[in-house]
Amino acid sequence: MKVVRLSISNFRGVKSAELLFDGHTLMVGANNIGKSTLCEALDLVLGPDRLNRFPPIDEFDFYNAQYLAPAVKEGEEPQPIPLRVEVVLIELSAELDAKCGGNIEFWHLGERRLLGKGEVQAANPPHVVPCLRLETIGRYDVDEDEFKAKTFFSRSPDAPEGQLTPLPKPIKRQFGFLYLRALRTGSRALSLERGSLLDIILRTKGVRTTLWEKTISSLRGLDIEADASELAPVLRSIEKRLARYIPMAAAGNATKLYVSELTREHLRKTITFFLAVSADQGHVPFAHAGTGTINTLVLALLSFIADLKPETVIFAMEEPEIAVPPHTQRRIADYLLTKTTQAFVTSHSPFVIERFEPSQTLLLSRADGLVTSKKVSDATGLKDNEFKRYARYGLSECMLGKAAVVVEGITEFHALPAAARRMEEHDATLQPLDIAGAAFFNADGDGNGPKFGTFFRALGLKTIAFYDGKPNRPAAEAAKYEASFDVRLEHAHRGFEDLVSSEMPAERLWNFLTLLKESGESGNVGIPAEKPDEAGIRATAKKAFASNKGAGWTARLFELCEYNELPPTVTAFLKQVYAMFPPPPEVEEEGEANGDLF
Predict the structure, then answer these.
(1) Which Pfam families does the UniProt record give (predicted)?
(2) C-alpha torsion 357→359→361→364, nearest 10
């Protein structure tokens, strides 16, 4: 079973959204773009336990917390504004198909839409498949003064006119939907609370335990006072004082201590799974283990669940990279891709992003409450193998930001951010580029810039380029740069090493070369013992920078020099970049306006 469409109206930070899916889906985007909200929306419709809460939703589950529309006329009651989440499911199991036969509709795989009335003749496989459309509607009940939510069949031919048929809970449990919230799931994964992973495993296996009756009986017979005799006089004194106001006819002592409320629900919350992870360590509560251990063990539980229901498990998982090393991140991603029927994943990690194909990766954006998505594979410029090759080396960071600063080599990739930091230190009014969402990207070669610029621009990012001058650059190549970048600087030098050695003061270059020689880092550069003339210094510096591009020498030079010694071409370019990201207005502290400062 798979989700092919998700529609949202008035839910949390999403005023409206309609997203289409093709199997496994990685959702990426900047913070607060709506990734978690989409997972929550799926859970609202498909999760077996979400609606069991009381209340199942609250004020802040409505867009901008608006759940009542103002009265149209004075004296009239305000009207509830509903929230609505709808999903379309395909590849239903035979059991679900049989139980929901009257609610079945048809989905056109090629056109990615529902067939409408009068299109029965078009319902032919393999291009058209059966589907099930479900929706959860939530609203504020004015009369009851409470929030309510319920899931229905969107197609309800047997329901009264204007009504929908509720989705029975046993059918909802067959969807096999699991939502793992980042960090929040681990601490209760192995509790017995309803909806925990251990509870899901027990229910999936059909385990009916006598644990509750036996445990309650054992706890009732536990005599705490026998092990703490100093408590008995205090309890008896309390009984005597209570007897002045309350008749106590119970046989024996009227007060008693227990370690639990002796109810099933309280035991679900208090029974704790203990774990020993090393030979020299005693058992500790599961939630007290290291975060990485918790998340890795959660993966083990997930694999257990997937093995129990291999044909129906759908996972929604937030940020699997949290507190786990890269190799475990890759294992989690590979597991989700190979062991589940469908996985929805949110991530900021290049080690997770690189495991998903561009056609499986959705870049989300939001404007005025409208969430839209774009497949990375729809962005022109890069082949799939190039995307996977560069995902770990800068593509991921740029995709999650607002702008990409594309350079042609590793030297510029190290040096320009160093220059930017110096400028930010010098001028406190500049908004730091990392806060602004501008990331540097190494295109790894002359002439590679346009294809990456085209890719980033197609994803809606601002594109900026800094590249070497070429006196006889073909007109077609120049046109590609112009079409691919919002801001571009083709500097006058043949290479960045030439720029630095030509524009920086000769004395500063010589001081740096001397430092390299004294530290033993210069290798075969051949830095002379005696200071040469200015032309010799600049030639030696150019040779040094060109022979050790990956050593970060130019970046170190920028960090050691005075601000006014930075190359003018570099600072002029970065000023253009900073101009694209003006700082937010300053917040006036209370009392400043009146000069009442301390």
Answers:
(1) AAA_15, OLD-like_TOPRIM
(2) 160
